[in-house]
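Tokens in:
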């Protein structure tokens, strides 16, 4: 599982850098900053992730993304969130209400 988590963190770092964010890595956690916005990016499950930050992104394998989205929707979280569904060569973004947004 550690190898998959490391791969997800590396892919998430690449995705956010491609989107123009400055990315700092703290183990498997990332802090992506662009202009005024800081997004805390994690590969942890919602129940394991810290509650820090106003914006949180969960980077998960594509086949788990919808389940993680539903888990987040069922909870009460002190941050805005999104799920990045990562596959080998692509990604999609799932928001709480908007469904899936295709990667550019």
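Residues out:
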């Amino acid at each position: 599982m550690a190898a998959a988590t490391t791969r997800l963190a590396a892919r998430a770092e690449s995705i956010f850098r491609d989107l123009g964010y400055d990315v700092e890595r703290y183990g498997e956690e990332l802090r992506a900053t662009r202009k005024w916005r800081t997004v805390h990016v994690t590969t942890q499950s919602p129940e394991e992730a810290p509650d820090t930050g106003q914006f949180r992104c969960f980077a998960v394998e594509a086949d788990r993304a919808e389940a993680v989205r539903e888990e987040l929707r069922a909870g009460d979280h002190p941050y805005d969130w999104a799920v990045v569904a990562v596959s080998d060569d692509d990604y999609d973004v799932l928001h709480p209400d908007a469904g899936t947004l295709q990667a550019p």
